[in-house]
Write a structure and sequence with these properties.
The structure holds two protein chains of two kinds. Chain A is mostly helical. Chain A has a two-stranded antiparallel ribbon. In chain A, α2 crosses α3. The longest helix of chain A has 10 residues. In chain B, about 80% of the residues lie in helices and about 0% in strands. Chain B has four helices and no strands. In chain B, α1 runs antiparallel to α2 and α3 packs antiparallel against α4. The two termini of chain B are about 25 Å apart. The mean pLDDT of chain B is about 85. Classes of the chains: A mainly alpha, B mainly alpha. At the A-B interface, α2, α3 and α4 of A face α3 of B.
Chain lengths: ~70, ~130
Amino acid sequence: MKTRLRVLRAEKEWSQADLADAVGVTRQCINAVETGKYEPGLDLAFKIARIFGKNVEEVFLYEESEISFKRQ
Amino acid sequence: MTTPSKPQSPKQQRKNTLGVFYVLVFLAIGTFTFAVRASHAAQEALIALGIVLTGGGIWSFLRFLRVADTHQRLVNHEATSFAFVASLLLTLVVGLLQRFGFLSGASLLIPALMVALWSIGLILFSWRYQE
């Protein structure tokens, strides 16, 4: 799964800590999501998307190859 | 520059509960250690105090898990697994050494060792998710 989180955050000029406080998680969590080391749960994904006024799919990109791999 | 609205930051709450957990656990370990060496009259009171402190430690740990976010819970889960396996191995080694007459009374250190290993696990697995 890829994320546009870093880009969206930069557009708003928010630090990782600002976003972390807004969605109620640690800065380390936001960092791990941005670097792709941690995939957020639905709850956090929706919270992040709402903060940016976007849909989940506009923030987190689920690649087709992952879907076809899981269907096999 | 705009900043997102801050509803309720549980950051301080997490730090506090973790701090309370460490204080209570180490006080409980200290109390139990003193209880072993205390006179019979003081022993019962110290053991009762140790049990209360242990209960407080468990309560603060559960509270920490409740306020922790999903990422912290994952790190905590990995750290707990690490501490469990490491403690198991060390307990086996200590047990074996005690059979041969070494390290008498070392079992008192096992709870402290488990907390120390859990803390090391938290640090190690937190690093894993950093850039």
